[in-house]
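P.,

For your records, the input lines for the assembly:
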Amino acid sequence: MSESHVATHHELGFVRKYIFSTDHKVIGVQYMITAMFMAIIGGLLSMLMRYQLAWPQALSPMMAKLFPISYNGGVMAPEFYISLVTMHGTIMVFFLFTAVLTGGFGNFLIPLQIGARDMAFPFLNALSYWVFLLSCIVIFAALFVASGAPMGGWTAYAPLSAIPSAAPGQATGMTLWITAIALFAVSGLMGGLNYITTILTMRTKGLSMMRLPLTQWSLLITSILGLLAFPVLLGAGILLLFDRMGGTSFFVPAGIIMNQVPLDHSGGHPLLWQHLFWFFGHPEVYIVVLPAMGMASDILSTFCRKPIFSYRMMVYSMVAIAVLSFIVWGHHMFVSGMNPFLGSVFTLTTLLIAVPSAVKTFNWLGTVWGARIRFTPAALFALGFISMFVSGGLSGIFLGTSAADIQLQDTYFVVAHFHLVMAIAPLFAAFAGLYFWFPKMFGRFMNNTLGKIHFWFTFIGAYCVFFPMHIIGVGGQMRRIYDPTQYMFLQPQQPMNVFISISAFILGTAQLIFLANFIVSIFAGKPAAERNPWQANTLEWTAPNPPGHGNFPPDLPTVYRWPFDYSVPGEREDFVPQTVPTTVTARH
Amino acid sequence: MADGSGSGRVTLSGVVLAALILILIIASLYLFIAQPYWFPVLASEHGGRIDSLFMAVLVVTGIAFVLVQGALGFFIARYGENARERASYWHDNPKAEAFLLIGTAVILTVLVFMGQRVWASIYFSDEPANATEVHVTGEQFSWTFQYAGADGQFGRTDNKLITSTNSVGLDREDPVGKDDVVSANIMHVPVGKPVRVRLRSKDVIHSFFLPNLRVKQDAVPGMGIEIWFTPTRPGQYEIACAELCGLGHYRMRAFLTVDESQDAFNKWMEEAAKQ
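Structure tokens returned:
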């Protein structure tokens, strides 16, 4: 931060440097590696789910040995399936996507791209990671509770989540779930506060807001969303905990009879939880999607060798999405029992939010039009991001139309939509970011050929898994169903479930290529000698690989231009970094 | 304006990715036009409007899907890097941006209005007077259907009276409740006549899903929610729970018979009343 701090800094020991570090780059990498570990868990859970959905009656002798209770008699227990659904969703939404995009990339990139030496509050930043790690441990522990892992779904609808006797995993498992989510919210708040302060106050000389890379805009707006949305989740979670352990009735109405036993609650309302949860939950979607959009935009422009199309509209549309994201939550509740008049209002706001999303799509197309694309793995994943976002975004229009949603709500159509738009698209952006910034993080490259192979399998696999889910959703297959073949009307489309599951195994296996490439490249990848191997314009590429403590020795860079000067006519090179003075250009 | 500096190089990666996008377009057109798997057979009056609305949205989004994915694939195939020349340098076009923004907004506004007409016809229209009335109660993991019986009046229910054999707590002492019909997991309605459902839940949230009738409504404990629909096609259909409700969620299944006539329905009621 301050110059004197850097001047007097001395070599830190291993523990202070890599473990209890306050350096934003180390914290960023810590976030990423922790999130990757969580992703492996979440991914494995989904593989078990897909096995069950394709072959519901199949015996799994190996699983029965590993989990004798959950596979009693060799077949997966229904309650175990619901726990898988719950834990997969929770881990992926919070502990992978939110963590890797804002915690991982946000931490690593914010000071580097704005020309700062570290975050505004380095200690708070470290604290945010350690609280996050604690929340990971708590949610991980929930998998191993003797009475069962939580079963409320990632949305934890009350009263299923509020009454410990409602299902096996809803006792200790659910309590751990709430605790983990509360800790996660606290961690997210500390991080968000830090990101906002840093971006607003610590930009280097010349870096005006309208010269920020889109990654930085997206992280700023995401952090504001987080700061406004996470407290609502935290509050709702605490109320839920009171209902469970303190005998209150915020979400539990009078007259409930659970397992023939009348409950002593009165005065609560189940829909209150849904309103609170989705008031957080919908902005949460954009907390995940916005950084993905920002990163994909910057990476796209770099490898298209062409300025991003309509930078201003890119910024304004993100702001519009952020504002609107707070008034669309009711589209999750069209058939919940909410007043149908509200359904009309939320349809209007929901289709309204499609406008800025469409603007962004047009602008990405405008960026690729007339480009000269360098097909690196990062470029491929950024292009794949656009395709996935478009596919998933368009199916959202069906769901946002309240009358069509009557049939589609809680079916696989919804599963297809949100996986494409808020899981696969952000996953593609995260992969693009990892291949792109890897040399800056570790001073080495990831293997290019393996990266491309990883992309082809992931692109094909993701579409084969998630596109057909639209179709079985139209056919009526419900979400969170342990055995779809129980229903006669779903039996004819069971071959689709088999196809999806086989595709999912291929998609899952292909991620091992990435994992091997990532781990081996950290230690044995091709050294990245050049500071700016991709010939990019943003500030992080003026720092060494990897940047040392303080990022920019000896002086902080000065910015003279926006980050998108690619292929400027008359320039010697096809890129002009932000640190190149404009006056020099004028003389050419 | 597009390619002031000529066309790019066709690269292997570009062609492969474009080909994959083309396959995606063809496959999705096949799935949505040939419809190898599609909606369950339609059996209600308002369901036709929902299906038509779905098709209208499908046409709009389908065109957008083909255009946008197609353009993306085309650009990817065409504009690979080329050692000789650079990308075009342009990054704003206010007219085109305004045109696309307004165009999108207009199309979406039309969809909002089309959708709201259907929504209003389902939720804001006057309820017919001659409806068959059914009280539906969800619980872990079954559905109970209560009919008023010959007198057309529902008997009093009380949670205190709930036993393993009296799942809705119907007061059989109540004179109007004597002829009530309570049926577990089997629902009958006559064809062509509106059905009014009053939906309750005893424990957690369930969702009353009639796939063939395009009916889905959550059953929320503490709330009594009324919906109505008109079955149009006699037959046997399945009823599902569409909201996660616990370990037996997947088997919370019931059966709906749409009887061919009021007489057939009355006959079932008589049979059921005897039990």
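Two observations worth noting. The CA atoms of residues 5 and 85 of chain B lie 7 Å apart. The mean pLDDT of chain B is 93.

Regards
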